[in-house]
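Priority: medium. Attachment 1 of 2:
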């Protein structure tokens, strides 16, 4: 059956953006495992954006909050420097086992990634201040303000934070939506906009990417 074509111009554009990203067998298999585990993976456009950012920044040290089954991690690792190390945090051991398989399938040696099992807000304070080039957040939206605060501590000047889920299916732009997660996302966006150290951008990819670079 042929997929229906969106009639809304904005939806057609976004659908075209997603279709423009072609994933190889490693990513296709990782995505299937993610869906089987209920660990919703980032879309191809989000993954490609992460890889692009990591490559442009020549990222050597990256923190990922929310390992999932490794889809975003593979994209990040492919964009990072060959001597780069991805530190990825997740509370679900089964997710990280799936991610480890994906990283291996992608040809990444064990020295290229460090997996930490635990609650991110308990793990992050143990990481080195100003020691990372990029922090990617794909975790509970209600905790985004706290993740942002931790990310800004972890980033070195010129580093970037990227938060996925920042548009929440359109809820953020709807003033009638006042659930805790939506309120937290608005708080995060406001904190980024008001921080003079940050150069921000909001991208309508996946469920919304809120990104910001820490000025040098």
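Attachment 2 of 2:
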């Amino acid at each position: 059956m042929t997929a229906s074509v969106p009639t809304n111009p904005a939806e057609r554009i976004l659908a075209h953006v997603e279709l423009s990203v072609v994933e190889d067998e490693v990513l296709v298999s990782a995505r299937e495992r993610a869906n089987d585990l209920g660990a919703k993976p980032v879309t191809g456009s989000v993954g490609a954006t992460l890889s692009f950012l990591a490559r442009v920044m020549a990222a050597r040290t990256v923190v990922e909050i929310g390992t999932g089954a490794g889809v975003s991690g593979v994209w990040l690792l492919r964009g990072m420097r060959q001597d780069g190390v991805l530190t990825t945090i997740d509370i679900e051991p089964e997710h990280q086992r799936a991610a480890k398989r994906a990283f291996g399938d992608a040809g990444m040696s064990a020295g290229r990634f460090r997996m930490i099992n635990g609650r991110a807000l308990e793990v992050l304070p143990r990481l080195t201040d100003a020691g990372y080039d990029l922090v990617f957040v794909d975790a509970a939206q209600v905790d985004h303000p706290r993740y942002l605060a931790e990310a800004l501590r972890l980033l070195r000047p010129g580093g970037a934070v990227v938060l996925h889920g920042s548009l929440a299916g359109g809820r953020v732009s709807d003033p009638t939506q006042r659930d805790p997660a939506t309120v937290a996302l608005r708080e995060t966006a406001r904190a980024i906009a008001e921080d003079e150290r940050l150069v921000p951008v909001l991208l309508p990819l996946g469920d919304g990417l809120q990104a910001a670079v820490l000025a040098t």
